[in-house]
Write a structure and sequence with these properties.
single chain; alpha+beta; Endonuclease I-creI; four-stranded antiparallel sheet; 4 strands; globular
Length: 159
């Protein structure tokens, strides 16, 4: 991470609380033999006219990529279990409004950092689905997301 103080981390956590999102998704995968993967993402949003704040956050955290969307919003995205875990470890003491999502994503990242998807137990996969739903249910959702039974079916965990 770049030069960071507690004040910087508190500011970034506040920004995440207000203009950010925490996501755990199950994505289709074309490479490999599994066909699916979990994706952990921390995302910060800002009007593109004022995206210097996102560059500053990226500099402080030392990670992430910026993208400008067609709707005039810029995003700073941080993907990956290890990266999300490292960032959440630093920001968690200061997060206030997204504490439930942060705790769930951090727990999922710990599980996902320990082993590859093919080595996860049935219990761990079910736990990841439960954590995904905790995050999903706390987030503002614009599109319908998969239900628990649909996610379990994708992971071949249905009886």
């Amino acid at each position: 991470m770049g030069s960071r103080s507690k004040t910087h981390l508190a500011y970034i956590a506040g920004f995440l609380d207000g203009d950010g999102s925490l996501m755990l998704q199950l994505k289709k995968r074309k490479d490999g033999n599994v066909g699916i993967r979990f994706m952990a993402t921390i995302c910060f949003y800002q009007d593109s006219r004022h995206d210097e704040t996102l560059f500053w956050i990226r500099d402080i955290l030392g990670i992430g990529y910026l993208a400008k969307r067609n709707d005039g919003i810029s995003e700073l995205r941080i993907n990956g279990y290890k990266q999300a875990r490292r960032i959440l470890d630093c920001l968690s003491p200061y997060i206030r409004f997204k504490k439930v999502q942060a705790k769930a994503l951090l727990e999922a990242c710990v599980i996902l950092c320990e082993r590859t998807i093919t080595k996860l137990t049935k219990r761990q996969l079910q736990k990841l689905v439960d954590l995904m739903l905790v995050i999903q249910n706390q987030n503002y959702v614009t599109k319908k997301k998969k239900s628990r039974s649909e996610l379990l079916k994708v992971l071949d965990l249905t009886p």
